[in-house]
Predict the 3D structure of the following.
Amino acid sequence: MSEASDTLVKFDSVQKSYDGETLVVKDFNLDVARGEFVTMLGPSGSGKTTCLMMLAGFEPATHGEIYLDGVPINNVPPHKRGFGMVFQNYALFPHMTVAENLAFPLQVRGMGKSETSEKVNGALEMVRLGGFGDRRPAQLSGGQQQRVAVARALVFRPQLVLMDEPLGALDKNLREEMQYEIKHIHEELQVTMVYVTHDQSEALTMSNRIAVFDDGIVQQLAPPDELYEKPMNAFVAGFIGENNRLFGEIKAIDGDFCQVELEGGGGMVKALSVNVDGVGSRTTLSLRPERVTIGAAPGQSANSLEAKVVELIYLGDHIRSRVSLSGNDEFIVKVPNSHGHVHLKEGEVTQIGWEAEDCRALDA
Amino acid sequence: MTDQTAGNGVVLAADGTPLKASLNRALRKNRMRALLLVAPLMLFVLFSFLIPIFDMTFRSVDNWHVGTLMPKTTVALADWDGKDLPEEPVFAALVADLRAGAKSRQIGKVGTRLNYEKSGMRGLITGSARKSKKLKDGPYKAKVLKLHKKWGQLETWTVIKRNTTPYTIGYYLNAVDMKYDKNGEIVMQPENRRIYGKLFMRTFAISLAITIICVILAYPIAFLLATLPLRYSNLLMIFVLLPFWTSLLVRTTAWIAMLQSQGVLNDLFVFFGMVDDDNRLQLIHNLTGTIIAMTHILLPFMVLPLYSVMKTIPPTYMRAALSLGANPVVAFVRVYMPQTLSGIGAGSVLVFILSIGYYITPALVGGTDGTLISNQIAYHMQSSLNWGLAGALGALLLASVLALYLLYNRIVGIDNMRLG
């Protein structure tokens, strides 16, 4: 999706092993376009932070090459790469004031005093901390420290900024606020960002593209909407957003669609054939809760099954209904709290249905 | 809200007693328990440490001898103007005191005490006391003056009069190389008799040298300890602590074996042709020996605080500095080192204070120019038995350590000191 000349960072078959026995990162390929916001998302131990550290130059790649603007940088030490970096615990130097922290990258680049203080003040204004320059990092709140860390990574105008779970230590409200703030800074400065997180909502909010990591492999690399709506395998479907899983065996494939017999005696359903091996193989059906209709009459949608209501949780804007379907007790249906919605009772047996396009047949 | 508040604004607990009193009662049990837990150690420290220290320090100003053993003379001298020899009543009192002192065999103590201030006083006092029995009835002035010509010198009486007071600063004057001159003025000792000032300076200089060498040697080790993976750092830590588990005396004597002119080190030097066989290096029983042995012994006290501080510095700080464009040396000097200052401070204070008061190692390997003030204190405790002077020297040492401690607190802040 990006032109070769537009590519700023390129990972080319990068592998990483710490102990010479197991690969933490297996064959990682990624092109990051100039000005793009790419997030590496995955559970802990999936290799995403290792990839970031290799890009930053703190860990050598065991195999493969990383290119910056087409130039291999494997042998360039971190301090010559010129990337801004925000660390998980901010890594603000505790013995320096906020202004000294921000001036540090400018001083080591030999910038003059007046220009330095001008840039420092500009960066502080950008993160709305003007007047905080004389404080020590320890005198700031978590959110303020976070903003200083971002400002410090940006003050020397790097072309690439790396962020390693920068919002992990903040509470929920502050985290959301900071997500927007970082997103706005990204839009304003047109800087390329590579962001690492294990929080999917963070990734969905901020990124142009997301690389979902698991087990040292990129499971899917796609824009947020595509990732959510068109997961390519069971891991991505399960990791991004809420997801209903049904297991079954493929009985027939008919163009883009397939017929699947559900385990647990639920009967046959029609699903979009996305990532299946062929007739007779096992498959995982992935279905978003909000795409399921409840109380639908048989025949109204492509698939229609009987389900027993197990639990109802009132959540204000919607009612979360856990139903038992084809032996699966964890099937979730979201009933919007709209005018005249269906009223369910626990223990009741109802008809639920969904369209074939919303139900994706993935790997087992 | 129905806060229970009495008329005068005191907050009351549910049963109507003031909240503060209630709280105190609740906490009293905890306080008692804490007190009981520390009581054995507190008593031990009190009797074995604090009381002896106060006793020794008190001896440095205590001046009971003349006042107690020569009470009549003390009274008689009270309104002597010091311009001419005293009159008959003083001599009469002197004879009475000398007689009583000779009888009780206590007069020697007065002689010893006065001898610290002016040599020859012991002989004068004890000799006169012995002869005082033969003196017939008074008037005594002429007879006493015949006993010894020194009784006719004004200075003798000045010294006695000065020491009739129950407290004295004489020991302290002595400890800082000062004395009273003939006229009772405070002056410096003659050049060739000033020893303690030099010794204090030497003690400080040696301690400073040891501290600096310890910082230089310990810093890289502590850094390695803090950054190595746990399994290697544990092994290395054992090597660092090994000296701790060996007796101080054994380590010091090992250094004697290593450093003496027929010792291991010199043998190696000769073997490799680095020094001539007839010209072996003098590494022990001098300053060099003291510095080498004490640096080795005190090194762990520098490594441990440094290590404990470095252990708490996450590696991300260095990484952050590198990512911001600082080369490794700049990153280390500007980001890492400042964060270890508290460890350097703690280790330096510890090593410096320990070396200032070090005794056994300099005594064994120090020779003449490698001994410290503590060795002089020990000499006055054990050999010269001038405990007052030993107390004064000790008190000065204690005061200088406390002053350093306060200075450190002022500069670095004692709360920043971490000892592990």
Remarks:
- The mean pLDDT of chain B is 88.
- Chain B touches chain A through 20 residues (CB under 8 Å).
- Residues 1-59 of chain B form one domain.
